[in-house]
Amino acid sequence: MDYFYAQAEERRRPMMSGKIIVVCMYSGRTADSGVVSSVNYPGRALGIHAGMPIIQAKKRAPPHESIFLPADREYYAEVSAQIDSIIRSRVEHVVQASIDEWNGEDAQAAEKAPGLKDAIIQATALRCSIGVAPSPLGAKMAASKSKPDGLLSLDERAQRSFIENSEVEKVPGIGPKTAGALNQLGIIKVKDLGKADPVALSEIFGKKTGSWLIDLGAGRYPAMLGEEKEQEEVSRIGTLKEKTRDPYLILAKLDELEKEAKQWLLEMKKSYSTVGIIFITDDMKTHTRSLSFKKPRAWSEDTGKEKVALVRQFLDEDKHDIRRIGIRFGNFMDLGKQTTLF
Prior knowledge:
Number of domains: 4
CATH architecture of the largest domain: 2-Layer Sandwich
Oligomer: single chain
Number of helices: 12
Shape: globular
Distance between the termini: 41 Å
């Protein structure tokens, strides 16, 4: 996804079109302490980038043309789940690499890619960049090259030429320190690795990294998509018809969202030990209240009392109206391993 967090904020704040959007991870020590998490392209043109201290980013961004926002992880996870379902419905084998990046394997990848881009933008109004190549490395580099909102498809010969003529720091897995060390050896582009002494590469960078660099220089690119990180929780979030503190309206929406989340638990054959309620108030802050159980619960068990208790707890502690509400289940256990309990 292109500048995912900032683009997601642009979508829900259309009145900010044309502004510099900077999404930040605030540490809370001071009003400006923390780092930039994501920035849109007008901000990047000013040199603002992920990882930059917020105070430095504010020096580069004209105040009347920019807006700094706290990261809303619950919202981004909700959007990511929507995108994930679109991709999995169209691509044969999918591995989600991060909240905003997917690797896929499909015999018809080149033919499906344009339709996939269209499906994502029609459903979410968000733009992405896609790379298609014989290897995951080639596809990832092609996607990066095509940003923003691009599509680059490479066959075997084009992939080899593209990777060989790329600078080493553009290769995923080669960080600034490794790239600097390679540059000192006269290795500027990937094709230079093929001329390097393989023994020297192993001695300098270690057996594992050295072997990978040797393979890279020889045009041998890993074919594995990688392993998908097991999902640690499932959540569903929705917007209330109007901001409210009415517990009946809040609980009615929670019941609706819970059905969706528990359908996932049923399909994945998971029990859970934690249930949490997500409250997003009218000041756009996210709050969570949760309960844990000594014994795992099956998807079919009623959580009515827990939901009422958590909603009442929050309403007693916070005086803001609630705009969005969500439910989360976590600390999973496979039901297949719990046949004596259920």
